[in-house]
Amino acid sequence: MAVTKVAYTLNPTWTTAQHADLVRDAFIDAGLMTAWYDSFLSGTMENRILEVQYDAAKTYGRTYYWFIFTGGQMYMALATGWNAVTHVPTGTQYLDFYATTTNAVTNHRLITSWTTTTNLVITRYTSQTNSSFSWFVIRNGTSSTTNFHISNAAVGSKISTWYDLNKVFFHHYLIANLSTNGTMGIIRFNQYYMLRRSYHPWGLANRDSTTLSGYNGTQTDFAVQTYGAVGNFSGSRTTNLVAADSYSVWADSPKYLPVAFSNVNPTYATNVTPVFTGAQYSDFLFESIPEDFGLSMHYANNTMAVQDTLVVSAGVEEWEMINVANNGTITTGASPMFLARTV
Fold this sequence. Notes:
- By secondary structure, the protein is mainly β.
- It has helices at 16-29, 203-206, 237-240, 242-246; strands at residues 4-10, 38-42, 45-53, 62-70, 73-79, 82-83, 88-89, 109-113, 120-126, 134-140, 143-150, 173-181, 184-191, 223-229, 255-256, 275-276, 293-298, 309-313, 317-324, 335-341.
- The chain has one domain.
- The longest helix has 14 residues, at 16-29.
C-alpha cells in the first residue's frame, strides 16, 4: 500500500508567519495536533508550541515541541511543561527546559535555513497502514532539503516499559541521517535535542552543562537506531566494515542489512536492490516503521537525489527517496536510501 503524499507550498516572497502556518497545516493533517497549543510573536520571531500527550496521567506524559520561525529559518527546542498565558516553559531550568528566551534562538536547534525568494515546499508522507506515522521533507527550490519525524500521541502505549514517565519524559524529533564510510552505507535515525529529564540523556555532556552544546548534541551522539550495509565486493573486514569501527561510542552499533548481490550473498541467483520493510526505528518504542516506508542500499553507477524515484516494478511498486546518500565508491559501495512507497 502506498503512503498518502501531500505537498504544502509557499510561493515567493513568503513571510515568517506564512512559514509557521504552512508547518501548522502539515502538522494538523498528520494528526499531530488540532491547533498550536500556544502561538505568539516575540520581537520579530514567531513562536509556536506543539503539545503531544503521550500519557496525560503521568507527571511527564506531555511533551512540548517549541518552534521559532524567523526570516527563512526554523528552530526547535523541547520542554516538559508550558504556560500558554505567560508564553514560557515551566519547571526547572536544564531539567525541563533549556532557557525561557522567546525573542532569540540561542536556546534552540537550527533545523535549517531557506530563502524567502524561492518556493518553500513541505511534503508530508503519511502511512496508510499506520496513520499516526508521518515523515516530512522540506525543500527550498531544489536545495536546502531536510527531513524529520515527530512521534504522534498514539505511540504513548508503545513506549518501552522501562521508561517511567513519572520521572522522565519521552520525545521524538527524529531525522533520517544517511551517510557512507568507505564502501559501507549507513542509515541513522537521530534524535537532535535532549534535556536532563530526557529518557535518553547524553549524561556526560548535560549533567553539569549550562551551555547549549550539552543539550543539543551532534548527529551521531543521539542515534536511536542505526542500520548499515557492507560493500558489494570481496573485501576484507577492515574495508567493508570500516564505518563500524569509527562510530562514536554514543551511537548504536549498526544492524546489518543483507547485500542482495550474487557475488556477495550466494542465496541470491541474480543481483537485486531489495527494499527492506518492518524495520525498528527507535530503541525506545515497541513499534516498527510501517511497511509503506522502507530502507534500501543501492549499488550502481547512479547519482540519486531526494524525491527521486526507485522503481522496483513500473506502475506496480515505486518508492520515493525521503533521503539518500551517494557512495563515492560507485559500483562497489552501498548508497543508503530511506523511502516512502508512492505506487
